[in-house]
Amino acid sequence: MDPEKVNYHYTDDLPLPAHADTKVLVTGASGYVGRRLIPELVGRGYRVRCMLRNKSFPAILSHPNLEYAYADGIHKAELRLAMQGMDVVYYLIHSMRLDERKFQQTDKAVAQNFREVAEECGIKKIIYLGGLGETSQQLSAHLRSRIEVGSVLSEGSIPVISLRAAIILGTGSASYELLKSMVLHTRWIPFLPEFNSRVQPIAVRDVIKYLVGVLEAENLTTREYSIGGQDVMTYQELISRFASLLNKKVRFFNVSWVPLPVSISCRLFAYWLHFFISVPVNITSLLLGSLKTDVVCPNEDIKEILPFEPIGFETAVRRALEKEKSSKVYSHWSDVPPESMTELLPLCEFESSDFIVEEHSIEIPADPEKVFETLCRIGGPHGWVHGNFLWKIRGFIDRLLGGVGLQRGRRDPENLRIGDSVDFWRVEKLDLNKELLLRAELISPGLSWLQFELYPGENGNTRLALRAHFIPDPFWGHMYWFFMSKFHTYIFKGMLDYFYKKSVQASS
Predict the structure, then answer these.
(1) Do residues 320 and 463 both lie within one domain?
(2) Strands 425-431 and 435-440
(3) 233: helix, coil or strand?
(4) Is the pLDDT of residue 136 over 50?
(5) Are the C-beta atoms of 284 and 274 separated by less than 8 Å?
């Protein structure tokens, strides 16, 4: 895909870059901010190298000035290969998907490795996006880790420009999706007085503009800059104003009488929200823990370098809602798979004798284009076309076990790309009008894939084959598949009948 097709043009009003031949490495390229930043950099003429953690993250953009490197920040040798020949590096790595103890340790270790390798490779500037909250005495683990990473990076000889932001508002950001899901699915919200701190949210478009702006500003030395939007409010005001923009009403009830520490209350609330929202428990818990800290800009020093006016809260939310309605959501927090799935081999590379395959097929009097178009609408708001009640039960069980369930939905209701999440599936392969392969990310005693293959036939017909692939864990995996097989047969045959009906309707 051409980066220009997904470029939001956030930085068009910045002066043209003086040194567009600068070679830029973007770490965390598969993350929410990275995916928004890369098209802007390429559009401004930079030569960009995207660093992905491993080859399971698909390279979805192509351009002569764009290349890819695969490196895990915990391994110096891999970092050296990724940084060789680069001038400036964006540090957008974060380990929030790990549990609290692991993510803090991992973040610090990766930052130390990164600083040392950057010095070896002659990097001229590091740009880091961290979090606000340094004036508070009761920092959450999330904010404390963000600040610690900035300090570790700044201990070296390379200039480190640290941008500190609070809540980032934009389609697909974890904070935005958490707010939206909470407002849409809960009318009464438990609240603690400790949570009514002040916050200064910022639109993702302004975050990107600042990130690009400090790249192009010359003679910058190691320094932290606070960035925020126009509005400062309490978290209660934030939620209430967000709800009003969605034409919803929410009520708050005080739970300070519950004899539990705030950290435990956050965790319990995160588990409760887990059944209504798409964001994972670990991320939700970390974000909730940050509510007890004021996250506002202590100064406006950034305007000495970039004197533009950021947009306000309501404008940011309205623009995000408009992009969702027009299917212009390019990056989403769910683009990165769960930690347990990041090292999983694709289906074509498995050589297992334990494969269980269930196959069904149907002949459809429609061309492959119409059938494939119908296939690519499954999941999310469209549901799973047959046996939806059974799908919902399986999704609920997955949420009970701590999995992603069906709440994750889709980035776009109509279009798919490799790497997209589709409820508790992820698109592993997408061959236009030929094949759609989904990999399961639900919790089960084995590994699962759902494959749709299209075969052109005579007279414009298409044979659609549906295959369920399963590699069972010993004993329990076989028991699971035996128990689910009758449900699978019922669901899969019904799905094929649905695709038949919809494809014929689309062709008439």
Answers:
(1) no
(2) antiparallel
(3) strand
(4) no
(5) yes
Do 406 and 320 belong together in one domain? Answer: no
- 230-255: pLDDT as tens digits: 999 998 899 899 999 999 988 888 87
Domain assignment present for residue 339? The answer is no
Same-domain status, 216 and 309? yes
Q: Which domain holds residue 300?
A: 3-334
- Looking at residue 467, which CATH number applies to its domain? 3.30.530.20
Query: If you average pLDDT over every residue of the chain, what do you get?
Result: 85
The pLDDT tens digits for 435-471 are 999 999 888 999 999 999 999 988 889 999 999 999 9
165 and 289 co-located in one domain: yes
DSSP 172: T
Domain count, the chain: 2
Task: Tell me the one-letter amino acid at 487.
Answer: F
Q: Which residues contact 141 (CB under 8 A, 6 or more apart)?
A: 100, 103, 104, 286, 289
Report CA-CA distances (Å) from 236 to 173, 178, 187, 233. 20, 14, 13, 8
405: tokens are: 């369930």
What does R_g of the chain's alpha carbons equal in angstroms?
Answer: 24
Residues 328 and 354 placed together within one structural domain of the fold: no
183-229 pLDDT per residue, tens: 888 888 877 777 778 899 999 999 999 999 999 998 899 999 999 99
Q: What is the pLDDT of residues 311-345, one digit of tens each?
A: 999 999 999 988 888 777 777 767 766 656 555 67
Judge if 355 and 321 occupy the same domain: no
Beta strand 160-165 with 223-226: parallel, antiparallel or unpaired? parallel
- The closest of 464, 486, 288 to 376, measured between CA atoms, is 464
Neighbours of 310 (CB within 10 A): 23
